[in-house]
Amino acid sequence: MKNYLYILVIGSFLTSCGRFKNEDNKQEQKQRIVCISKQYSEIIYALQAQKEIVAVDVSSTYPSEIKELPTIGYHRALSAEAILAMKPTMILEDNNIGPEHVVKQLHDLNIPMKQFGAYQNTIAGTDSLIREMGTYFGKQAIAETLCNTLDADMDLALKNTNTFKTNPKILVIHFGQASNIYLVMTNHSNASKLIEWAGGTMAVDGERSMMQLSPEIVAQSDPDIILLTDFGYDRLGSIEQIAGLPGISTTRAFADSKIYRVEEHDMVYFGPRTGENVLKLQQLIHQDDEAK
After folding, report:
1. Tens digits of per-residue pLDDT, 73-132?
2. Structural domain includes residue 6
3. Range of the structural domain that residue 254 is part of
4. What is the CATH number of the domain that holds 41?
5. How many CB atoms lie within 10 A of CB 198?
6. CB contact at 8 A, 153 and 278
7. Do residues 89 and 35 make contact, with C-beta atoms less than 8 angstroms apart?
8. How many domains does the chain have?
9. Are 157 and 280 in contact (CB under 8 A)?
10. How far is CA 199 from CA 158, 196, 224, in A?
11. What is the rounded distance in angstroms from the CA atom of residue 44 to the CA atom of residue 49?
12. Beta-bridge partner residues of 92
């Protein structure tokens, strides 16, 4: 079941994005970087350093203009052929790529591959990553501005959190439903940190960042609010269809009409917009909460 769900989710995601037909419009470029990390990709664009990026992995979806680039596949299901077709002079990756035999092929071909520092998933760690990437691309001044904005937004968000009367229980469902199994983000995910900073609590505990849960367990978690990531929400298309999902209609979130759409890329990694995203989450999950 686990492998079947993985294939179903990834296959649906790949076929939905329609990005494989994008042409290589930078064929004459000498420096050709393939970026296989959605976090790196967003930071590169924020640094205004995207000129040398010729392709990205299919999960790199922010900002919107990144979708104009060719893709080389899903970062955990890569093929050497797709990457080599882009004639890369450098591959940027965050140690979260696979399968292993493809990674070995790339190393054996002596294609330069680079990871930036393995920073903790904290705001300070994100600042350090932005600054390191800013130095690498010669965009130190922009990097410093991004860090200052991130820190200011986080300071405001944490100040707001201290004023809220409630601490709603949040269920974050990634990709909606597949084969009557939900893929749910847990208290060990980056999404959990975002929810905590926004003044909420994750509804599901787990050893992994995401878990497969049955409709019965989803119903038992009885969240105050359900956040559905974009692909699952958009695939369903309406609250009526969401109501038809097993286990959803019995929750307090459904009874109170508190089921909202969030972007997947905003929930799974930290970047320049993390403070901004926490502020948006606060507006979403504390709509009915009057400040003290």
Report:
1. 999 999 999 999 999 999 999 999 999 999 999 999 999 999 999 899 999 999 999 999
2. no
3. 169-285
4. 3.40.50.1980
5. 24
6. yes
7. no
8. 2
9. no
10. 8, 5, 13
11. 5
12. 35, 114
